[in-house]
């Protein structure tokens, strides 16, 4: 099992969460909530209002999200879903645990207790330069005050 940190449309209550609970795509078990140890710019960009974490460490905010344990099948699905490696790149990032529900092995419990763990995160280094000038968010909600409604894939 791998740990994945999601910060956008795959979180609970967001438009693509249905994929995280679709066992036909693999297994994803919610472990807890966290935020990035480093600051990153989280922007909502493009004509479909997609949330992107720009891989510019030290700029922006500590981005809030959810930590999942996923099997290889789900990780492969997420790679395809996220357009990895072209649109997003899956990299390891340090995530500060804010709230932990996971029931993993001793190593996982120790990492959670220490408050920081490494998780795969889909961020991007392949973005138009003007995205750096967009407003930065510390968390994403598709129906947030930003007024930028996410466009589902099936509606594009």
Brief sketch in words of this structure:
With 156 residues, the chain is an alpha+beta fold.
Describe the protein.
- This protein has 156 residues and is α+β, with helices and mostly antiparallel strands.
- The protein has a single domain (2-137), classed as Gamma-glutamyl cyclotransferase-like (Hypothetical upf0131 protein ytfp, Roll).
- It is built from three helices and seven strands.
- The protein has helices spanning 17-20, 72-81, 106-114; strands at residues 2-6, 28-36, 42-45, 50-53, 64-70, 89-100, 116-123.
- The strands form two sheets. A five-stranded mixed barrel has the order 1-5-2-6-7. A two-stranded antiparallel sheet has the order 3-4.
- A hairpin with a 4-residue loop joins strand 3 (42-45) and strand 4 (50-53).
- The mean pLDDT is 93.
Q: Which short descriptors sum up this protein?
A:
single chain; 156 residues; alpha+beta; Hypothetical upf0131 protein ytfp; five-stranded mixed beta barrel; two-stranded antiparallel sheet
